[in-house]
Sequence to fold (372 residues):
Amino acid sequence: MASAHTIRWGILAFTKDLMVDPSTRKVSDIKHTVTAAASSSSVDRARKFLEDCKCPSTAAGYGSYDELVKDDNIDIIYIATPHSHHYQNTMLCLEAGKNVLCEKAFTVNAAQARKLVETAKAKNLFLMEAVWTRYFPLSIQIRQMIEDGQLGAVHRVIADLSFAKNVEKEWGIKHRMVNMDLAGGCLLDLGIYSITWVFQCLYHTLPASLRKPPSVLATMEKYAPTGVDEKTSMLLTFPSAPHGAHSAHGIALTNFRVATDVDGKNTAKPAIRIQGTKGEIQVDGPAFRPTTWRFIHTDGEVEEKVNEIPGGHGMFWEADEAARCLRDGKKQSEGMGWEESVVIMETMDEVRRQNGLVYPEKIETTEYPVQL
Fold:
């Protein structure tokens, strides 16, 4: 049996999932090691992260991102800063010749996403948007069921990720969730998950030649103290849909004032409903980290399913995908390719355009470098 391929990670902002032993999720072909981490403000913070995560004693801690990208002992950099900073941070890494796994939302707008893709292509580097939910075995299984025709012709997907918050009391005006300078609001932070479910069911399950961007009809309400969106509802109409000559509707919802899971006990049940002519798949929330779902057949049969997450938070599956892509010489992931990342950003651009949500120029610009 071939030995596992080890990928050396640099961490720009922090996550602990990379150090979870792959064998706990029955993965034996790849391994991860963290060789460096950086904090934008303090080398001590970076070193404490490395120590807390039990990273190798040889891992380097840096007090700036500029130092991190110069480290030759790194195969790929994981970026988990606020999405307002994704474009500048990813450009820094790409310009330094580093492969990148960047958290979602990929960027603030589609123009930035296109520029990142253009730069990765020009430099022959791997680049992937870290939409971790897509790489859950649960998501992969559901997409396969749609592709295999088990739901018949799929006509509608409804997805919601909403948290009931006393926004004024809990977040005020400085918190990142409501801060315009950090691209705050529910659309880019929570709504991206609702959109992810709609796209992975109605767009990604089609052959690439048949995929067409949806038309968009959206409404939102702003949070008066800062101007970010506090509730956004989107109707996305896909001109082509799985298993039939028909269009399909994706309804993506997000809200700061009411919750998908009303009582925190999952009494309300599904956060996602995928509806086809042969049945319906219901996925219980939260939309970003689901484990429980069911397939309801039109004859009344109900198949209850549970996909447990073995240790950690679940972000290791996207890291496994990135590692395999690097091992195999791929520059993008089939599970979340560049084209789809751009189309999703274009969709959110249109949602914002229809509702007049514009962020400060310094985080909307495609200029690089810009100090944030």
